[in-house]
From TrEMBL:
GO terms for molecular function: CoA-transferase activity. InterPro entries: CoA-transferase_III_domain, CoA-Trfase_fam_III, CoA-Trfase_III_dom3_sf, CoA-Trfase_III_dom_1_sf. Residues 349-378 are annotated as: Disordered. Keywords: Transferase. Pfam families: CoA_transf_3. This is Crotonobetainyl-CoA:carnitine CoA-transferase CaiB.
Length: 378
């Protein structure tokens, strides 16, 4: 797999596929991937942002302005199974690395493209996650009701875009296995963001209702948000009437579930303000931790609002093995977050630590030059 992508969405895709067994060659410019300079935080001088999405890859630096390096880049594109890129539309075409150009010499190639806003009216618009969160409407539904719009705490649109591209590439590979034909797979940040807002975007396209910020509240469910206990907040997430009945039993007020104002979810949503007051009145008798233990015994979906450190700790306690501990060629440990995928027969593999710039340049160049010599002899 030839990875001509930078920053997050593309590298996330290629790391996912690398975890699943793909051999990934990461092509970097002489300046390197932008995220190598996105600091702090750092681990032994390396950007943790870069480390988060670049394991299981080999790195080679190729300068497309250098004819010899450009020739090697074209050789790589000609001989790869999958190529992924996220340059501005039209950029790689100038170097003979656009889809039509690559497919001419490599007709079975699966060519993955990420753009910010598509390749028609939005082809000139640079794509960054924050811009996509803003322009898609995601920020308009994120944040307190009376406050300003908020972005997500992580570049969630990039991640979702990368996931969609990975799914598309796997589908294209399946078709190629059956027919021998390659194709291009394209995903834009804007389209991925609109798809990821699921019920919120459907609310608008189906009914014309424009969603707005509700803080931590849910537009279609209640109780489904953080609630104040005696010492802090506890998230309670009720998805059906049976769960609500169990919640009322756990809180010591089973009659609450029989109140006509709260019999159905729709009724609870309409009367959420009054019901919230009663729930928090009952929750005030114990701490968030005590209530979490009690509600769990009643099989009521709930949880404390953890820090990331506490989230990692919880996953470890539950046997989910959230951390991959690898060692680089110097013997230094480089921990990364594990793939969430598990299989009943095969395994996700962690074969290579995130590479230094051009770490595998000599090996990759030698391989490409050998291909060049073979073609010359033919």
């Amino acid at each position: 797999m030839a990875d001509f992508s930078r920053v997050l969405a593309g590298p996330y895709t290629t790391m996912m596929l690398g975890d699943l067994g793909a051999e990934v060659i990461k092509v970097e410019s002489p300046q390197g991937d932008d995220t190598r300079r996105w600091k702090p935080p750092v681990l032994d001088g390396e950007s943790t942002y870069f480390l988060s999405v670049n394991r299981n890859k080999r790195s080679v630096v190729l300068d497309f302005k250098d004819p010899k390096d450009l020739h090697l880049a074209r050789l790589l594109a000609k001989n790869c199974d999958v190529m992924i890129e996220n340059y501005m539309p039209g950029t790689l075409e100038r170097f003979g690395l656009g889809y039509e150009q690559v497919a001419q010499d490599n007709p079975s190639v699966i060519y993955g493209t990420i753009t910010g806003f598509g390749e028609d009216g939005g082809r000139e618009l640079p794509g960054y996650d924050l811009v996509a969160q803003a322009t898609s409407g995601l920020m308009s539904i994120t944040g307190p009701k009376e406050g300003p719009p908020f972005k997500s705490g992580v570049a969630i649109v990039d991640v979702i875009c990368g996931l969609h591209l990975a799914v598309g590439i796997l589908a294209a590979l399946d078709l190629r296995h059956r027919t021998g034909t390659g194709q291009r797979v394209s995903v834009s940040l804007l389209s991925a963001a609109l798809a990821a807002m699921v019920n919120q975007t459907e609310s608008y396209v189906a009914t014309g209702v424009v969603p707005s910020r509700m803080g931590n509240a849910h537009p279609s469910l209640f109780p489904y948000e953080p609630f104040q206990t005696s010492d802090g907040l506890l998230v309670i997430a009720i998805g059906n009437d049976t769960q609500f009945e169990r919640l009322c039993d756990a809180l010591g007020d089973p009659s609450l579930a029989k109140n006509p104002l709260y019999l159905t979810n729709e009724a609870r949503v309409v009367n959420r303000d009054k019901l919230k007051l009663r729930i928090e009145e009952l929750l005030s008798k114990q701490s968030a931790y005590e209530w979490a233990k009690t509600l769990n015994t009643y099989k009521v979906p709930c949880g404390p609002i953890n820090t990331i450190a506490q989230g990692i700790s919880l996953a470890s306690e539950l046997g989910l093995d959230p951390i991959v501990r690898q060692f680089d060629e110097r013997g230094k440990e480089i921990p990364t977050v594990a793939s969430p995928i598990s299989f009943s027969r095969t395994k996700v593999t962690y074969r290579r630590t995130p590479p230094k710039p051009n770490q595998d340049g000599e090996t990759v160049r030698a391989w490409l030059n050998s291909l060049d010599k073979d073609e010359t002899r033919d």
